[in-house]
Amino acid sequence: SAVISQKPSRDICQRGTSLTIQCQVDSQVTMMFWYRQQPGQSLTLIATANQGSEATYESGFVIDKFPISRPNLTFSTLTVSNMSPEDSSIYLCSVDLLAPLKSYGYTFGSGTRLTVV
Amino acid sequence: GIQVEQSPPDLILQEGANSTLRCNFSDSVNNLQWFHQNPWGQLINLFYIPSGTKQNGRLSATTVATERYSLLYISSSQTTDSGVYFCAVVTSYDKVIFGPGTSLSVIP
Question: What local confidence, expressed as pLDDT, does residue B1 receive?
Answer without folding.
Answer: 83
